[in-house]
Sequence to fold (194 residues):
Amino acid sequence: MMNGLWQDVELETIATRTSNHRALVKETLIEANEKVLRSDRSSVNNLDEQFLYAKKLLCRDDPKSDVEAATWLFRAAENGHAQSQNELGVLFTLGIGVSQSDEIAYQCFLKAALQGIAASKYNLGKIFLEGRGRSRDLRLSFRWFMDSAIQGYALAQFYVAFMLSCGLGCEQNSALANYWLSRAGRNRLECRGY
Fold:
């Protein structure tokens, strides 16, 4: 599988360097991707490969690919792959490649969060904040956001700051709100490479 991925990267690099041949390289890239996708189906046998293969499928603008990606994510998630559980939760939240289901999304996020995935903890915080498929519970929302924030997840840090500043699900504390807002700002800048 890795050979096909490296070929894709090499083709993309060539495309950006030679503007005169972009159309030809793009056509070759599409053909190479199709070949890699066809050949890789049979060789995807470990959980990380299943996850990466599914992410690759999700990058395509095709509903059939979304359904196939959901299938691969489900296989990996069923075997305990935390990143796949989180990604599957996102698909169920948005209804991409699967029927939208807040309940299944919650179950996927919970499984991944219990394995330490910060994004899943953030997603659980959002579920309880908004009351999506669950009763709105600001205290539980704050706890999930805080767990994610401690792991350095910038969006969760922002929500912790917001909830602390308003006293939602916790005691109001302006000093702590400013601390978390500052950390969120630093993390967002670091993510963007500033």
Residues 1-26 have pLDDT under 50 and may be disordered.
